[in-house]
């Protein structure tokens, strides 16, 4: 017995899918945005180091998200959650790099980096990542959404 | 190969980043912030321009004007009756040779790719084939429907879901677009903007963003889905590939191909030969509860006791005119839809009562691991017919891995009968329960009797004891459609003839590429999709997204095999094809 009035659902990530998608997007469009910022800021080192930290910490964040996702019956991760996650990740990074956690901040980060620069760079990387996961990635990788976010 | 290329690209980017980092000069102190704002604005404007171009082009596609056929009131004859009239009995053989076909006087056509069934399953497969490079001349479709959604829309309308109503489907489950983007939500936002309804556009955008936690899940209007399929049908040349008729027999040939016997009611049967077949014939009929079935057979009363998918508008008209009591069976989305319709009828005549009979109460939330499913007033709630991640994600991965025996349990837990969590529906049931015009009962029907223009229904409890009696006017069975192979003339024969494997749910067993492996014939391949494959390693086969997924898997395996006219849908090809879709030009 079945019901006809139905259609299906959007992509929801697995843990490996999360890691792979993060690596792919940060490693490509993330780098492009970061280089653009480096050019505007006349400082390539700080944005690139930032991107690296966001990526590495992100793998740990993804594990946390994956555990939380297990509480959801649908096993999904709505865009709203993605944005909340982005804010939490950003806050942690800011605390780390400016010495809120480590007295000296993190290596590679200019001590003169302002919050505005950080916010513009980090915000833009995330906006682009969000845009890709919500749309363009499905176009470039037509199988991605059926594989829990894996592209490898 | 494609993954390898992606890795290379990634490594190049990483290399670039490292080199720039190493050679970059030491930073200077921040000056003013003006240029930051300029830069962000510039990027924003560029992004909006790209967005605008994409959305504008989506609107440029033109729908297909179908050539209406003369309506066939004649239902198809069975094979025996047909074979008494035409020389087709050689189709009882397991293998058909070219000599056999030459000896009889039947029109024979040849093609490379053949879709059996002309509904949404075949449409998804043909669409994917076209996007991967097959031409309309290489593809044929056999089926009785004029438009791919004809049967679907008919069922929707009968179950009181009209073109302006919303389906239970995700924005990204787009039968007209194999990429799932832009989804129906984005298109509806655009439609609202161009029609001067920015408020509505914003509401939908917020819905997609915050669903399902802060808002209800977005679902598309069925009319919008049908129109989008018309557009795509025109783009891929659907009508030129369509051969009207019902398929009767599928047979292996002695030259690594397959012969399909089909006929249009009142016409001479024809034969189509193809190397690659795709079977998506859907449900074989309507399901009716045994007690209702017996009542109908005994009394011939198909007026007061109906299946929700049957045409039954007379019930609502009668109820509005003179009031009455309706008994509903089943607790899925169709039951919700019917109750909504009855609630609307109550607006015109408050003298309408709804009784809802269910086998047993539903109080305990289902749980698997840490997750639990929502329940409200004995209705199981879930946005779609499967949890979202069963379409692609955690549950999908899990279902693919487990043993057959364990899978049955998951099917029961994850699939099962549910309805959508819609505020309006919950309000109707809860208000109805409070005010008494909607009541729920638990038990099973023992007797249905006809007593002076009323139906008297006797309900038994768990132990088979008489528990209650109801006098009412109509019974609506909302328990769904029939999907057993035994009732399917084409597939039942195929299963018997070639001793096909069945999955634990006794439907066609297919491999990960949705191929019926037993039907391999040298180079020849047969794939299957939709409800006829339910019970395998992928759960939601019977959905728009499931049909897209099946099409992707089967066509990908054909590409790997080197099937003629197809090329790999890699990142570049995919993007080019998507751009063509946006522009509304042929693949």
Give a brief outline of the structure.
By secondary structure, chain A is an all-alpha fold. Chain A is built from four helices and no strands. In chain A, about 65% of the residues lie in helices and about 0% in strands.
User: For the record, what is the CATH homologous superfamily label of the domain at 79-167 and 221-284 and 486-583 in chain B?
Assistant: FAD/NAD(P)-binding domain
Query: Regarding CATH, which class of the domain at 79-167 and 221-284 and 486-583 in chain B?
Result: Alpha Beta
Fraction of residues in helix of chain B: 25-40%
Number of helices of chain A: 4
Q: Quick one: how many beta strands of chain A?
A: 0
**What percent of residues of chain B are in strands?**
15-25%
Structural class of chain B: alpha/beta
Shape of chain B: globular
Which H/E pattern describes the elements of chain A?
HHHH
N-C termini distance of chain A: 37 Å
Residue share in helices of chain A? 55-70%
**Bulk shape of chain A:** globular
Rg from alpha-carbon coordinates of chain B: 27 Å
So what's the oligomer here? Answer: heterodimer
Low-confidence stretches of chain A: 1-9
Number of domains of chain A: 1
Q: Radius of gyration of chain A, rounded?
A: 17 Å
Q: Main attributes?
A:
heterodimer, A: about 150 residues, mainly alpha, 4 helices, B: about 575 residues, alpha/beta, FAD/NAD(P)-binding domain, five-stranded mixed β-sheet, 24 strands, about 20% strand, globular
Describe the structure in your own words.
- The complex is a heterodimer of chains A (about 150) and B (about 575).
- Chain A has about 150 residues and is mainly α.
- Chain A has one domain.
- Helices cover about 65% and strands about 0% of the residues of chain A.
- Residues about 1-10 of chain A have low confidence and may be disordered.
- With about 575 residues, chain B is α/β, with parallel strands linked by helices.
- Among the domains of chain B are: about 80-165 and about 220-285 and about 485-585, FAD/NAD(P)-binding domain (3-Layer(bba) Sandwich); about 290-380 and about 420-480, FAD/NAD(P)-binding domain (3-Layer(bba) Sandwich).
- Chain B has 19 helices and 24 strands.
- The model of chain B has no long low-confidence stretch (mean pLDDT about 90).
- At the A-B interface, α1, α2, α3 and α4 of A face α1, α2, α6, α8 and α13 of B.
């Amino acid at each position: 017995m079945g019901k006809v009035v139905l259609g299906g659902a959007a992509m929801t990530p697995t843990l490996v899918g999360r890691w792979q998608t993060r690596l792919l997007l940060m490693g490509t469009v993330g780098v492009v945005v970061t280089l653009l910022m480096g050019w505007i800021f006349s400082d390539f080192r700080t944005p690139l180091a930032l991107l690296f930290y966001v990526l590495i910490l992100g793998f740990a964040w993804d594990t946390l998200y994956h555990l939380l996702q297990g509480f959801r019956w649908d096993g999904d991760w709505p865009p709203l959650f993605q944005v909340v996650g982005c804010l939490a990740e950003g806050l942690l990074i800011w605390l780390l790099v400016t010495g809120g956690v480590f007295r000296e901040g993190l290596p590679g980060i200019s001590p003169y980096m302002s919050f505005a620069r950080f916010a513009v760079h980090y915000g833009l990387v995330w906006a682009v990542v969000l845009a890709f996961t919500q749309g363009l990635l499905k176009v470039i990788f037509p199988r991605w959404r059926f594989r829990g976010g894996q592209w490898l | 190969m494609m993954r390898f290329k992606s890795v290379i690209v990634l490594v190049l980017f990483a290399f670039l980043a490292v080199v720039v980092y190493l050679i970059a000069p030491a930073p200077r102190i921040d000056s003013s912030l003006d240029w930051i704002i300029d830069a962000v604005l510039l990027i924003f404007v560029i992004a909006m321009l790209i967005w605008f171009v994409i959305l504008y082009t989506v609107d440029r596609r033109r729908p297909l004007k179908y050539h209406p056929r003369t309506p066939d009131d004649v239902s198809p004859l069975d094979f025996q009756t047909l074979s008494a009239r035409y020389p087709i009995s050689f189709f009882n053989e397991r293998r058909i040779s070219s000599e056999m076909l030459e000896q009889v006087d039947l029109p024979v056509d040849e093609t490379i790719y053949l879709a059996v069934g002309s509904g949404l399953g075949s449409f998804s497969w043909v669409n994917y084939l076209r996007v991967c490079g097959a031409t309309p001349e290489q593809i044929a479709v056999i089926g009785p429907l004029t438009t791919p959604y004809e049967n679907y829309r008919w069922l929707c309308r009968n179950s009181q879901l009209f073109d302006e109503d919303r389906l239970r489907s995700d924005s990204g489950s787009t039968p007209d677009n194999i990429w799932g983007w832009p989804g129906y939500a984005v298109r509806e936002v655009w439609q609202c903007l161009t029609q001067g309804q920015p408020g509505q556009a914003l509401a939908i955008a917020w819905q997609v963003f915050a669903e399902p936690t802060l808002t209800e899940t977005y679902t598309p209007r069925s009319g919008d889905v049908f129109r989008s399929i018309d557009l795509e049908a025109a783009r891929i040349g659907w009508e030129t590939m369509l051969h009207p008729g019902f398929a009767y027999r599928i047979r292996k040939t002695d030259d690594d191909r397959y012969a399909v016997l089909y006929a249009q009611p009142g016409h001479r049967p024809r034969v189509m030969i193809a190397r690659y077949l795709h079977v998506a014939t859907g449900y074989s009929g309507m399901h009716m509860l045994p007690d209702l079935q017996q009542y109908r057979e005994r009394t011939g009363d198909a007026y007061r006791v109906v299946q929700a998918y049957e045409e039954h508008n007379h019930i609502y008209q009668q109820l509005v005119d003179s009031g009455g009591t309706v008994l509903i069976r089943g607790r899925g989305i169709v039951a919700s839809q019917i109750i909504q319709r009855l609630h609307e009828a109550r607006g015109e005549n408050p003298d309408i009562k709804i009784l809802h009979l269910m086998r047993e109460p539903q109080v305990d939330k289902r749980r698997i691991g840490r997750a639990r499913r929502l329940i409200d007033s004995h209705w199981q709630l879930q946005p779609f017919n499967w949890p979202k991640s069963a379409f692609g994600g955690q549950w999908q991965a899990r279902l693919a891995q487990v043993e057959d025996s364990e899978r049955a349990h998951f099917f029961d837990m994850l699939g099962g009968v549910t309805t959508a969590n819609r505020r309006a529906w919950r309000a109707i049931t809860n208000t109805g329960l409070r005010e008494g015009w909607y009541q729920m009962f638990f038990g099973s029907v023992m007797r249905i009797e006809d007593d002076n223009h009323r139906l008297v229904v006797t309900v038994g409890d768990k132990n088979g004891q008489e528990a209650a009696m109801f006098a009412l006017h109509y019974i609506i069975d909302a328990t769904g459609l029939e999907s057993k192979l035994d009732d399917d003339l084409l597939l039942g024969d195929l299963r018997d003839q070639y001793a096909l494997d069945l999955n634990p749910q006794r439907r066609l067993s297919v491999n990960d590429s949705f191929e019926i492996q037993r039907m391999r014939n040298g180079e020849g391949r047969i794939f299957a999709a939709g409800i006829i494959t339910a019970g395998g390693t992928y759960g939601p086969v019977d959905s728009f997204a499931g049909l897209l997924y099946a099409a992707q898997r089967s066509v990908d395996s054909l590409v790997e095999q080197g099937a003629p006219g197809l090329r790999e849908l890699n990142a570049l090809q995919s993007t080019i094809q998507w751009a063509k879709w946006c522009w509304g030009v042929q693949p």
